[in-house]
């Protein structure tokens, strides 16, 4: 099949950008979306043009590197699927496809479809960990963890840190990302000692990085390729409330 | 030349204790005077950087990705082994050690593997403390599953995302140190050279992938945790960015490269669909716990699987290996799949695939239980193939997956170049000729959390901190060399893209140096690779320039290294005139097609030393001494 | 074949639309200097954690909803005829202190709600300086995305409402201060009935109340979520409940102007 791509092209953070129309021809339905772009790039290189720069790595939906807003939806039309796992059979011949980078103040653009997501790392650095020293940990079975807690923690821990929640949020908020980490550790006994402080410092860090506030549009949940639920945002809110109550 | 692995002597079980008793220590107040570079932020790199930072060293951590959390360890699905014996099924440190040595087809060091088995238990404890949400049973205890190559249930897991959870644990520990200021993080930085001063590794040269700037960093020691090289086959389960560049450039600076021909082929990947394919997707081997592998009995049988009745199916793994059945080790299952496909009994549009059938498991356990265990894998399969694994059997085929070979290291994880430490998949040390499932995560974290903190101290205690700074002429030379290569790549302006060369190289490697290697095929590869390499340097087209984000340039540099490395790998495969583990030479097999080792002549580590671009590398041998295990025939029947 | 149902593919046929979107996109960064300065100012003046801020919004919002219910009970006394509403009005006048404290609290809630609303909205808008050229929403609604607008309409309506019935300065001829009922009390009932016989006034009320209903249909469940009172199971129930409560309030409140307008209450 043949497609009309409208791809965001921008040489650098301070250069002007625009949507460029690029044809993708002979696209096989078995290709992944990125393989389609690979082919487009190969053709561009043969024409001596600059290929489209985009972030990608594992191509199996787990590293969280790929980041494209496809037809107005982060990671494209298929539910719970990253861009790299999206396949061209979801499109049909003659379709126009808009491809844009993640858009947020906290994600400055690097080139074309590549943005800088280190703000998410800094949210984790603010407190997304247990302060466990290497060595000296007690036996793994020393503290029993009820299965429902372990399962809920795992549900939250599935976050791949791609930032689709931010890209989708009308407010450019990183609440779902932050909530997933806070919840994971708050559900587990190992994370409880620091839970209150963690919830506060991580949300503070989120605002300092320039992310917006959560106003419960739940757009993040729909965009999340790993199906992280907004109930974790409620959990985060409870953790902050608890922290506030404890500090009184 | 014979080289020494510097293993401690004495009873196997006491060697690591003995080593720690005798090693030299760095005074806590002096630790902050030492600088350590850690390249790579996978399980080995992140855990090493975090642990060393916590100990008080000044650590610089580098990765080519935009975040340390994206390293490819994240893609490991199945689990991590430990000799906890929580299931009371007879596991022990010795048994884990023995299974790993045997799984590696008796081509690894006893001392290293025993240490790995000993440390395995602490890793689980460490990860639990970090908040890794391992699967639990209803009583709240850690759950285990069984895995290929073992008859005990010792694998700890977090759904089908164990690697992700362990990496996020290590990443969080690393993040904590970054916040504390003990670790400086450099993302989107690709190591392009190792700086060696007076025979000791004292720094690296990196390219900032955003600005293109080439800069050098000096340190008292360098740890390479840069993963494996199987992308030399173009199609593999590795991430797109995985390359041999860091380790290969260290090799060119004098570090020995050991056993490059030991590559692992994973049996449960999704088959190739066409030329456009950029990578192969693995599905956890744990699927083989409940799925049954089969092909039609009749050649060229193109009927849909549901129409082929029981009597017309060949459950070849269960037939050939009754005691291990579908859980036979990876190399054996992979080769068996290749055999049946070569007999034209393969399935799917290309004929390169075998069925992995869950019908019996669904009948026995119910679809819900199967969904609970493997739900995410079934979803992944459906996304890629558009087929429902619950309704019809999955199609699988082997794919390149892991590199057992790597830079040569001694017991300290130190290369022959002093001050250069190599951890995780990047080194060669623990898996011999074949790695068992759920062992890579174990090794990466063992090296990073529990080995390097000790062994690097032993080295640092013997040197003066900050003896070499980045003003040293070696750093300027290194930057100049990197710049020359970059300019050369940009200046060729030929007609083929780096990707086309890479694909072509992959084809040569898969066809000639793949699952079944022969003297003839290897010699053919040794003829084809240099021709392709020459063409590359005449005809590659790299658009853009060096002082911007340029993904074509990045790929070109990696492909250039692969083109040289492929020859080394093939040369090693040709020299190893035996079959063992992942290295299968068709000339050396039993009557039933099993690998036939030659312990008299090849029970050694082949460590290759670089001798210049046009010269055959020098072979160094480290004899493998087995004092505690009997070199049996690896049988899984 | 499941393809996307999004606006972009549908409108790509319209060349005009593409040009418009592209010119907008080509400008790159949409400068919002005023908003950015305001955001900076807010950053300096308040140090609230985002979740705390949300809780201020949600808490004050819930308090205002509680007020809506109390207010509604009083209003419905209108259906008991002139005696009902006027008795209620006079009852309130017998305890000025209580009424003033109540008014003060409600005003404070309102001011805080508006203050945080504006602050949060400015921050949220500045968090995405460059917009998407093509955007397709999955789960959010026009209602959830226009809270600030429905809120501002409600605020405008409130001013009108206060001028109309509390200060009674809009239509002095028909104010309760002028009118007297048979018992000689200020005739609030007649004021209301005469007020809503005016078409324009009734329409204005309907618009204001509709905006309020939209605002609440998102606000109620949003506030509950903000206080962590929602789980994966209960959130959908709460979203529906919020819709029903907002609808009920809308119909209960509009029952007054409508029944007067159609002449059921005279």
Keyphrases for this structure?
heterotrimer, A: 248 residues, alpha+beta, Ubiquitin-like (UB roll), five-stranded mixed β-sheet, two-stranded antiparallel ribbon, 7 strands, 36% helix, elongated, C: 266 residues, mainly alpha
Can you offer a commentary on this structure?
The complex is a heterotrimer of chains A (248), B (637) and C (266). By secondary structure, chain A is of the alpha+beta class. Chain A is elongated, with a radius of gyration of 20 Å. Chain A has a five-stranded mixed β-sheet with strand order 2-1-5-3-4. In chain A, strands 6-7 form a two-stranded antiparallel ribbon. Chain A has eight helices and seven strands, in the order ββαβββββααααααα. Among the domains of chain B are: 136 residues, Flavocytochrome C3, Chain A, domain 1 (Alpha-Beta Complex); 131 residues, Up-down Bundle (Methane Monooxygenase Hydroxylase, Chain G, domain 1), CATH 1.20.58.100. In chain B, a hairpin with an 8-residue loop joins strand 18 and strand 19. The longest helix of chain B has 25 residues. With 266 residues, chain C is an all-alpha fold. Helices cover 72% and strands 0% of the residues of chain C. In chain C, helix 4 crosses helix 10. The longest helix of chain C has 31 residues. Chain C is elongated. The chains are: A alpha+beta (248), B alpha+beta (637), C mainly alpha (266). At the A-B interface, helix 1, helix 2 and helix 3 of A face helix 3, helix 5, helix 6, helix 11 and helix 12 of B.
Task: Detail the topology: elements first, then pairings.
The complex is a heterotrimer of chains A (248), B (637) and C (266).
Chain A lengths: L2 E8 L6 E8 L8 H14 L22 E2 L2 E2 L21 E5 L8 E3 L2 E2 L2 H10 L19 H11 L6 H5 L6 H13 L7 H14 L10 H5 L7 H17 L1
Parallel strand pairs in A: 1-5
Antiparallel strand pairs in A: 1-2, 3-4, 3-5, 6-7
Helix pairs in contact in A: 2-6, 3-5, 5-6, 5-8, 6-8
Chain B lengths: L14 H8 L5 H4 L3 E5 L3 H13 L2 E5 L17 E2 L11 H11 L6 H21 L24 E2 L5 H19 L2 E4 L2 E9 L2 E9 L5 E5 L2 E4 L20 H8 L4 E2 L4 E7 L22 E5 L16 E2 L1 H5 L9 H13 L11 E4 L1 H7 L1 H19 L8 E10 L2 E2 L12 E3 L17 H21 L12 H20 L5 H15 L6 H21 L11 H25 L23 H4 L1 E6 L8 E6 L14
Parallel strand pairs in B: 1-2, 1-9, 2-5, 9-17
Antiparallel strand pairs in B: 3-4, 6-7, 7-8, 10-16, 10-18, 11-15, 12-13, 12-14, 14-15, 18-19
Helix pairs in contact in B: 3-6, 3-12, 4-5, 5-12, 10-11, 14-15, 14-16, 15-16
Chain C lengths: L6 H5 L3 H12 L6 H13 L4 H27 L4 H13 L2 H31 L15 H4 L1 H20 L21 H10 L1 H28 L7 H28 L5
Helix pairs in contact in C: 3-6, 4-6, 4-10, 4-11, 8-10, 10-11
